[in-house]
Design a protein that fits this description.
heterotrimer; A alpha+beta (193); B alpha+beta (154); C mainly beta (204); A: 193 residues; alpha+beta; seven-stranded mixed β-sheet; six-stranded mixed β-sheet; 17% helix; elongated; B: 154 residues; Immunoglobulin-like; four-stranded antiparallel β-sheet
Chain lengths: 193, 154, 204
């Protein structure tokens, strides 16, 4: 047999391997969610989650079928499902910012209710001044009654892409969660740090 | 073509470099400059000094801290103070433009309460800040976020 | 210009006609294809748009994809009240059109239920935030798994529609789509909707 032309072999092998690697890379490209998604900062109840521009601590939660604001002549409102008030303290760390919030229970996502007007934590947060109040959600009662159910609170600023997002895990059987007949939302507490 | 392979590769590389340069200059650079304008002030005045910008002189007339809110309003939250900075600019009222006042302390900034400035020549800005903050400068920023003038406070 | 040696053609048109005369079946077929494509390009091409229009009536449930909506009745009022609380007052030349509907969110994302509903044929119409029928509070977004009876409100000219007339309403279907960069959401379909007519009553 004639001596093989090594240069040809090497060239063919190199081409084949480059094509092979390209194919593997093509099948493992990041999705747009992975490229543009937020950077999650995880925490549990009672622990402060510190992101780049916002920090928050969830101190507890209250669950009840009725809610009212602690104000003269404020009406008592019935929930469509049941009210879940997440009591937290949030602080902006760099600039005045408005938080965006979601509560994920099971497969579903919920946003804060508009029926109580503008709540302090859904407005603008001042850097260095901690606001202690609640985020209130209306959630189906069956979802919240299940044993072992976890809710995940997500807090971020702006549109969330490529920035910090706080993710707080809230187990709904925890002892810090209180279930009653009426939730009363008091005025917010602001403390300069 | 009878040109050798390496010469063709060089031509290709030159064309690619030219294309990248065009993209950098006409697409990337303007966005980058926009961002840089929100980080680095266009004009900076040292503490206590006025500054001339576009024929108008800007100066800090008064800067003070107070633990009381003026008027009958509720008391200030615990741990916070009210910082009052009065900014003056020479020049006629019509020469004003939409701008907002910010108080700066290192990485943090606070926006002045009230509407953006316009035709006023004396702007009494108030900021609610934590008591532990030590503001170093007051910014005049345009409504897009670019820092036009930074006047140092101390 | 000197004519080509041996050729009878001298002007451009003559040369063009000579070229055209030399065409065989292949060239004519090709020309025909190009002509059809160019002609239909102005009308969106040869693809037919599949529009799905469902006819429904008040009291029947329609699934928009995200919501299960049942339109109940329509009312025309001069002012909007919740109990004895005034929400929106009387204004000259304008009235309020209200559509009462029961809505259930069957998806996993919250949404505003007034978006898919469009009254048809009313000029100068402005949508107002939807309210709960039970207590007159703003509904905001309806969460997944929740059902509510709401009043969808529009601000309409006083002469656009009257009590006793039939109101035509379109309810658009919604599709779940991934966003270009991050996340996902429900967007309104541009082709599929439900069509119904509701008699306009006076307020109860």
């Amino acid at each position: 047999m004639r001596k093989p032309n090594w240069r040809r072999v090497v060239r063919a092998a190199a081409t084949a391997s480059v094509i092979g690697v390209a194919a593997v890379l093509w099948h493992n490209l990041p999705t747009p969610d992975e490229v543009y998604g937020p950077f999650d900062v995880e925490a549990v109840m009672g622990q402060q989650a510190t992101g780049r521009d916002i920090a928050a601590t969830v101190t507890g939660a209250r669950i009840a079928p009725q809610i009212r604001m602690e104000r003269l002549r404020a009406p008592t409102l019935d929930a469509l499902g049941t009210w879940v008030a997440i009591d937290s303290e949030a602080i902006a760390t760099r600039t005045d910012a408005v938080t965006r919030v979601e509560l994920v229970v099971g497969p579903n996502t919920y946003v804060p209710t508009s029926r109580l007007g503008v709540l302090p934590l859904t407005g603008s947060l001042t850097p260095g001044i901690a606001t202690r109040s609640s985020w209130v959600f209306d959630v189906p009662a069956e979802l919240v009654a299940q044993r072992g159910q976890h809710a995940s609170l997500r807090v971020w600023i702006g549109d969330g892409r490529m920035d910090s997002r706080l993710v707080v895990d809230i187990p709904l059987d925890d002892s810090r969660i209180s279930r009653s007949d009426l939730i009363v939302i008091g005025p917010p507490t602001l403390v300069g740090t | 073509m009878t040109t050798t392979l390496w010469k063709r590769n060089v031509i290709g590389a030159v064309v690619a470099a030219a294309a990248l340069a065009v993209i950098a200059v006409f697409i990337v650079n303007p966005s980058w400059q926009n961002y840089q304008r929100t980080v680095w002030p266009a004009h900076t005045a040292p503490a206590g000094e006025p500054i001339d910008v576009d024929g108008q002189t800007w100066r800090v007339r008064n800067a003070s801290r107070s633990t009381e809110r003026p008027g009958y309003g509720a008391p200030l939250p615990e741990g916070t103070v009210l910082m009052k900075v009065t900014l003056e600019r020479s020049g006629p009222p019509e020469a004003g433009f939409g701008c907002a006042g910010y108080l700066v302390d290192g990485e943090r900034s606070w926006r002045a309460a009230g509407p953006p400035c316009g035709t006023a020549t004396s702007m009494p800005w108030t900021f609610t800040i934590p008591a532990s903050a030590e503001p170093t400068a007051v910014d005049v920023r345009d409504l897009g976020g670019s820092i036009l003038i930074r006047l140092q406070l101390s | 210009m000197e004519p080509a040696r041996g050729s009878a053609a001298t002007t451009v048109t003559a040369r063009f006609r000579q070229w055209l005369a030399g065409w065989g079946l292949k060239e004519w077929r090709r020309a025909g294809l190009v002509a059809v494509l160019v002609a239909t390009a102005a009308f969106g091409g040869l693809d037919t748009v599949n529009k799905q229009i469902v006819d429904t009536k008040p009291g029947e449930m329609f699934d928009t994809g995200r919501f299960e909506m049942t339109v109940q009745r329509a009312t025309l009022v001069d002012e909007v009240r919740a109990g004895d609380r005034l929400i929106a007052g009387k204004r000259p030349g304008r009235r309020f059109l209200g559509l009462v509907a029961t809505v259930r969110n069957t998806s996993t994302l919250p949404g505003f239920m007034d978006k898919p509903v469009d009254p048809v044929g009313i000029p100068d119409i402005h949508a107002l935030p939807a309210m709960r029928l039970a207590d007159g509070t703003l509904t905001g977004a309806l969460g997944p798994g929740l059902t509510d009876q709401v009043v969808l409100l529009w601000d309409v000219p006083a002469d656009a529609i009257s009590v006793g007339a039939e109101l035509q309403v379109h309810i658009w279907k919604e599709l779940k789509r991934l966003n270009a960069t991050y996340g996902q959401g429900w967007v309104q379909s541009v082709t599929d909707y439900a069509r119904l007519t509701v008699p306009v009553g006076r307020p109860r």
